[in-house]
Amino acid sequence: MSRVSAASAHIDAAGSPIPGEPAFIAVGKLRHAHGVHGEILMEVWTDFPDRFQPGTILYFESGANELHLMKCRKHHRGLILTLEGYTSPEQVGQLRNQVLFVKSSDRPPLSAGEYYHHQLINLKVTADVGTSIGVVTEILETGASDVLVVRRSTGADVLIPIVDDFIRSIDLAKREITVHLIPGMLAEEA
Asked: Which CATH number fits the domain that encloses residue 161?
């Protein structure tokens, strides 16, 4: 989960996140027991590994089961976790291959102008000249900059780098991204 501002999810009276916001966010996958004291190796999927502090509540099966983090330490292949109630390799081994989640309301806040990837999926994309382009279906992490994959109703997908030269505005309330396209970005112009 990379960052691309956004305030934390707003929760309505029923406890549900705002439309388009997931209730839980995947942060890692449990791999195998480590040592003889009930520790387990976790593959990290989050950009915020320091969120794993004693007392953190984690979930697996999208909130069906709650786990309390007792200890956490870095390991060259991820993090070693000690979970409340798991004291042997056999006990913690039962959690192998489980995906861990946190509540989206517990995610770290981002600076203004930054967004979580999941917030951009399914947003409508419009060119700054008013033309509808399509809908964001995916975000590619390329190393240099992330790239929006915009599915069009007809024609090939459009790839738009998430950089100031192309992204004019992101309005989560309107569920819309306004972009500036240059010649050749649309397949029919190539």
From this structure: 2.30.30.240
Positive or negative: CA dihedral 177, 183, 188, 190? negative
* DSSP-derived pairing of the beta strands 167-171 and 176-179: antiparallel
The pTM of the full predicted model, rounded to 2 decimals, is 0.61
Residues 49 and 91 in one domain: yes
Query: With helix as H, strand as E and coil as C, how does the chain read?
Result: CCECCCCCCCECCCCCECCCCCCEEEEEEEEEEECCCCEEEEEECCCCHHHCCCCCEEEECCCCEEEEEEEEEEECCEEEEEECCCCCHHHHHCCCCCEEEEEHHHCCCCCCCCCEHHHHCCCEEEECCCCEEEEEEEEEECCCCEEEEEECCCCCCEEEECCCCCEEEEECCCCEEEECCCCCCCHHHC
Least Cα distance to 91 among 39, 52, 132 occurs for 39
Over residues 108-130, the pLDDT tens digits come to 778 888 888 888 999 999 999 88
Q: Which two tokens stand for residue 111?
A: 């600076």
Q: pLDDT tens-digit profile of 1-28?
A: 344 422 233 333 334 445 556 788 889 9
Rounded Cα gap, residues 97 and 178, in angstroms: 40
Question: The CATH number of the domain where 76 resides is what?
Answer: 2.40.30.60
